[in-house]
Design goal:
alpha/beta, two-stranded antiparallel ribbon, 12 helices
Length: 343
């Protein structure tokens, strides 16, 4: 089966999670977002369609543009507890359509990951996670399939060890490839259509010449889809060795004076503020995945219900700030909203 056919089946699987309550909730969110844009005043109806929850902040690698890899968090590090996770699902499952087990860190380091996935699957929520692929042992590969996980993103940012380790510092490409083989083998053995396996390729200057080979490898291994992702870098103004030389793969453009600037226009709205949020391992809710160090906490689920937090004055004020003066919000300064993240 061709890659685009697998992508179609994944989309069908996602739509199969539809219920009237989820559809009505999605319509409310869409409507309130566009009414807010039109009026210039933030209002919100409904609950999030998509939530990212963080299994852990721990990671085995030291990727140069990741605060987890750099060990630069100022917020606490730890593991998501099963009870805290179930509390979130119990409050949101009727409206929640898409649950992502990822924010920072390596999800497979949380020993309860598969039980967490199963709990969401029981509530007919579409589930996904992202991994660096180093913990896909035979046991974990089988457990991934039997958990009912709908989508698994495997980061593979180079096709030779020399190229791969320039970004995935401390990583071993052969572990990623062998783990992928195990996962595909268990899918075939168990005759399972899920998880939908995606090779995610973060395009940076050291690996941009390997893109064509990536598709060949994916086909050979039985991977269902390939996604090319543009890379966010923190220090880009005066150039960065990771910025691709092929412009369509870069989030940044070189100006006449030699400095770099973000491609996207700083528009005063953001769909993420209406349809999704991120929950850290210890229950703190932050606006989006660009708030990696949780510098804009909007509340904590250990102190209040999700609905109360989501509809609070402080959360709506943040949405209002995005509509009014988004350029003044630090996490928005290097944001991909309005930029083509996936190529």
């Amino acid at each position: 089966m061709r890659l685009h056919q697998w992508a179609y089946l994944d989309a069908v699987n996602f739509l199969s999670k539809f219920t009237f309550k989820r559809g009505y909730n999605a319509w409310l969110i869409w409507l309130s977002f566009y009414v807010s844009k039109f009026r210039g005043k933030a209002i919100h109806w409904g609950l999030p369609v998509s939530v990212s929850i963080e299994p852990t902040t721990s990671c085995n690698l030291r990727c140069p543009e990741c605060p987890s890899g750099l060990r630069q968090f100022t917020r606490p590090t730890g593991m998501l507890a099963m009870d805290d996770y179930q509390m979130v699902v119990n409050q949101l499952h009727k409206q929640l359509w898409y649950l992502i087990f990822y924010f920072q860190g390596e999800p497979y380091l949380n020993k309860n990951l598969f039980e967490m996935i199963k709990y969401a699957v029981q509530h007919k929520i579409y589930t996904a996670t992202s991994t660096n692929g180093h913990y896909l042992t035979d046991e974990n590969a089988k457990a991934t399939v039997t958990s009912g996980l709908d989508r698994l993103i495997i980061s593979i940012d180079g096709l030779t060890q020399e190229v791969y380790e320039q970004y995935r510092i401390g990583g071993a490409l052969n572990k990623v490839i062998e783990g992928t083989k195990r996962l595909v083998a268990w899918k075939q053995k168990l005759k399972s259509k899920t998880p939908h396996i995606i090779f995610q390729f973060l395009v940076v200057k050291p690996n941009e010449h390997q893109i064509n080979e990536l598709y060949q490898l994916a086909n050979t291994l039985g991977v269902n889809e390939v996604k090319l992702k543009t890379a966010q870098v923190y220090d880009y103004k005066h150039g960065n060795k990771l910025i691709p030389s092929i412009e369509k793969y870069a989030r940044y453009v070189r100006a006449a004076d030699g400095t770099y600037y973000l491609k996207n226009e700083m528009i005063n709205h953001c769909w993420k503020m209406w349809h999704s949020c991120v929950i850290t391992w210890n229950g703190t809710v932050v606006p989006c995945c660009f708030d990696k160090d949780a510098t804009h906490p909007l509340g904590n689920l250990k102190n209040q219900s999700f609905k109360t937090l989501w509809q609070s004055a402080s959360y709506n004020q943040f949405r209002q700030d995005v509509i009014g003066t988004r350029s003044n919000i630090d996490i928005c300064a290097n944001c991909s909203e309005g930029t083509k993240v996936w190529v």
